[in-house]
Amino acid sequence: MLEAEAPKVAMRFVVEGPPVGALWRRAFARAALAPLVVLGPLVALAPTADHRFNIYWHGGLFRDDPLRIVPHTLDSLPSYLRMGNFRPLGRMLEKLLDLIAYVLGDVFGIPANIAFRLVSFVAAALLAVVAMLLAESVVARGRMFRRPPSTLAAVVPFAVAGGLVAAGRASPVVLFAGLYLSSAALVLAVPLLLCRIHPQRPVRLWWIGPVVVAGAALASFNEVAYLALPLATVAVAARGRWVLALTGRKFWLAAPMRVLGLLWLGFLPVFGAVRVVINQYCAVRACYSGSDVSAGPAVFAALPSRALGWLPPLMWGEAAGGGRTSGFVFVLATVALLVLAVLAIRDLGRMSIVDRPAALVLVLVAATAVLLAATMGALNGEIQRLAAHGAWGMGWRDSAVTMPAGAILLVALGHAVRPGRRALIAALVLLFTAVGTVSATANKRFRDDVMATPAARLDDRLAQAIAEFEPTAAGQIRRCALRGEFFTLFADAPFSQYRFDQSFDQAAEQKAGVPFCPHAPTAREGK
């Protein structure tokens, strides 16, 4: 007997969309790539101020012995304290970043100034990733990576990237970029990590020592890092009360609050002792103006300019200076950012929704970060004088925090207006994409203006001379010609002449065992 034919069963495959891990990976990629598009036009920008020398000085000093960074920094600590600042860990990071740029130039044969910018681009990408994760950590109520990223992760990377504008030579995008962008990432990372501690997690005894030391390390980093714990205090308290709905003992004794208290326990004694020592020194002599504190009515006059100076339209004026912008860069940046934006919008349907209470808590946290950094900037005498002359969009070290914090603030406000409206979120993505495009063109205009100066063109040729070091008589003649050009250009700046010989001789000795150009000892006179 023949068997009956088996019935045919219709099968339907349902595509549910990308898994959670893929959504997170794409969010990370967008956060890392968007800043690179905006900063790309600055890749060949010549270093300014101390970095004209530090790359070669630190590179030559530590190329063959990187661990020497630690004793070298500690030995210089008393002199820096007398000048009014205490940044041992920050200076170690600065020297390490300079060394990385120098080694990249040495290994790949590229000028150190380009390698220096590439290092700063990595720091900017790190800052954007940390900013995105901070936003996610504040609004997430459970295990953050067990659920899809929220719609904040679609918008924050573009908002942060759009704020990376070279708003003047003191902007953290230009001057000490790797250091200050990394410092800002540290400031945002502290509340991020604390918000990820489960409220009911036990605080082990062995945590106490490392956490207290970590608090002391924050007080030993630099002035920007001082902002981390005040920001973390607001973030942990606001999230615990209004996102997690903790009250009473559950609020005050939650694990994040206890860890935060240990961090403060390590931070305050170091911070207090250092400020007492600095105040004693600065009471009898002039201190370094970049870190000096100038309290008084001028602080309140300067505060609005620092609290709003991170807005991209204000910074565009400082960067572009009213000059013509590059159409090619505009098109290239538009295409690159638009591709990332389309991919972000495509993922919106699978992303988590942010409710209004969580969005408002994020508004509070971001606004606190902006206000803290703006206050730090307004306390500086130089900034007060610039603010009095209407320099609202000028970047300074506080901008390393106000730029990403302001970006988070705008994104959080957008989410608080109409929670769950994906059309609004898509519009925000496109809006910040357009902002990023304009910021990229402003950066190109800034780079063109700087590179049109004789000093920047000379810096380029000096970088090339080190990258392609020629230890021959002909090479020495060319290097001495460059030195002579520098000394002519900076004839009225003896300290710059001293730094030139100190730095380029160090690099030349490391590369070939010869001076950059044979010369009589250069006198060190003032700064």
From TrEMBL:
Keywords: Membrane, Transmembrane, Transmembrane helix. The chain crosses the membrane at residues 27-46, 121-139, 151-167, 173-193, 205-221, 259-278, 328-346, 358-379, 400-417, 423-442. It comes from the Bacteria. This is Uncharacterized protein.
